[in-house]
What does this fold into?
Amino acid sequence: MQTDPSLDSTHASAPSSAPVPPKRRATARFMLSHPLHLVSLGFGSGLAPFAPGTFGTLFGWVSFVVFSHYLTVVEWGVLIAAGFVAGIYLCGFTARKLGVDDPSPVVWDEIVAFWLVLLMVSPVTFSGQLGAFLVFRFFDAVKPQPIRYFDRKLKGGFGIMFDDLVAAFLTLLVLALWRMWA
It folds into this structure.
């Protein structure tokens, strides 16, 4: 009879250098469990049952329209810069708690990146904003190069935030070329 638990195969486990948190689902309860989750999950927009990035970008669009009545261009610039820097920490925090490198319900990155797009194209009509939305969603969802490169190589909160910043810059490039040739 075995008395040493280390010899028992039911207690054997592979050695691990660092504990990996179990994967969790992003739910309303999870979101409300910590203020950083509330922000990183886009105040609930990232909990959409499908296409959470699209819903996060829509939240970014609506919040931009609402806050633009109160914020100057300089204040928007400060908010976007602060939102990017803070997003590195809060998106990384939520991703670690969910046990996923870049969880789709984390949409703060889409919100901040789309704010940047809208700030740079403003003033623009609703159809111009819709065009910016569609181009940004294309780049964020399809992740063509160089977005894919950064999405794969950069990890943690910085990686979560940075690939959307690249998508924003590519969106602005496409819109600038479109304006130039239109």
Q: What stands out?
A: The chain is about 65% helix and 0% strand.
